[in-house]
Amino acid sequence: MMAMPNTLSVLALFALFFVLSNNGAEASHKIYPRFQTLSVENVNQVHRTGYHFQPPRNWINDPNAPMYYKGLYHLFYQYNPKGAVWGNIVWAHSVSKDLINWESLEPALYPSKWFDNYGCWSGSATVLPNGEPVIFYTGIAEKNNSQIQNYAVPANLSDPYLREWVKPDDNPIVNPDVSVNGSAFRDPTTAWWADGHWRILIGSRRNHVGVAYLYRSRDLKKWAKTKHPLHSVQGTGMWECPDFFPVLSFGENGLDPSVNGQNVKHALKVSLDLTRYEYYTLGTYDNKKEKYFPDEGLVDGWGGLRLDYGNFYASKTFFDPSTNRRILWGWANESDSVQQDTNKGWAGILLIPRKVWLDPSGKQLLQWPVVELEKLRGHNVQLSNQKLNQGDHVQVKGITVAQADVDVTFSFPSLDKAEPFDPKWAKLDALDVCAQKGSKDPGGVGPFGLLTLASENLEEFTPVFFKVFKAVDKHKVLLCSDARSSSLGEGLYKPSFAGFVDVDLTDKKLSLRSLIDHSVVESFGAGGRTAITSRVYPTIAVFEKALLYVFNNGSETITVENLNAWSMNLPVMNVPVKNRGRENPRNE
Ligand code: DQQ
Hints:
By secondary structure, the protein is mostly beta strands. Helices cover 5% and strands 44% of the residues.
């Protein structure tokens, strides 16, 4: 499914907003009735990922209800069991002991009751203080075709696999009242406990105002809408998949969703249906006033902070009590056409789970791929103290570049040669600045970085690079992941994704980590301050023909202080759980 170009006018976006519909219920996904139930005959392997989360075939979108239960991580996701485009949505279910190797189970939720007959859409898990999990999700109901919120509970709490879920008959638990747009009312969050009540958020819109409605309940069954929404922002349109969580103001530990008070900040993330991007703010949550106040100076809208400046949507975090981390999951859709998805028999991947915590500045979140990923690292090659003069590109040999993990630190002797930052660019999206400057445009300090998934004669390559600019009172660092030269293939969306990196340059170093996996390049700049994901479909630079280079096209000499690159091994990826009894997996 092609992502929406960033430059579409707001008007066109609004028009699109009203065109998309599903059985009268407003949906964010394009509907292709012709393809929805076209069963997949052959699965094309060329661009399938090796170590990113994927089922063996068909369409996937949002990660749902990640949680940890009796020694297993559970992950559910929106899945079309009948085809490679969005439709026939069920909650597919996988389990893992390490967030990297996954086994699949039968779908946990699928349309079966009047209150979800037209679809089981996104939702979240809440693990109650007694350890019992409950799922809240959006049902599309036969009766009124509007979006209502339901709950489901495990049929057998002693089964660590939580194979079977029950949808009790007292559903739905939240109906849209007359003041709510019932066809734009979905994606309940994890519940948190505050002042004698459970609370959840539900994403919505009132005309063009994006809204996170707040509901409270004493028993998780009878829910009442609070007088005011927790938060709303004019002009942002439908808020899908809200995520609201506390973060500690120091250190890297995560917090249970109900923690609040001293040394705690809150993050509110929303997925904007109009742009198909997400943004978040950090702020203060007042339990008593039932309000969230974003910190002053943060942009609360289109241009706000993003968890990822690339192809990353419908994300969700959860608290992992076994390691005291907060972990983030995001979905990356395809950047090819619906016809290409149908031909290849699959669409959508989930990105590597990331640990999230608050930057010591308090001004943004930091993210890093979970440490468990490093178990897949195989053969390692290194470079150190490699000088890169203007125009140099040096090959990194000896690993399977199409399936690799690369971690590099660059240094530069001075910032004197940094180009001035044109004040006009301040009004542009970073993506447009990247498009103007590109990886080949000779600069001062940068562009320098990695050429990933490159063909021998550079007909194809996906550069991930930095460029440093001199602004009025400080330096501005741009990180680009530019798909424009990534493929000779046709009908692809090839954006020059980019984000600015809020980093202190006193040590004159910039680090970059890129997870390369056949059709995805997931990059983390400056220790996880800025993340960018690109989906790319090389035609020549595939498998062993994919090459990796470090490069510099700036006039300032760059040194590769240290580079580590690993071939990545294959994890167990959604192999069905076979003949596994009801035993406790911790005893295996
Ligand atoms: N996808 C789900 C919705 C959600 C959207 C439907 C976000 O619940 O709003 O598959 O991608």
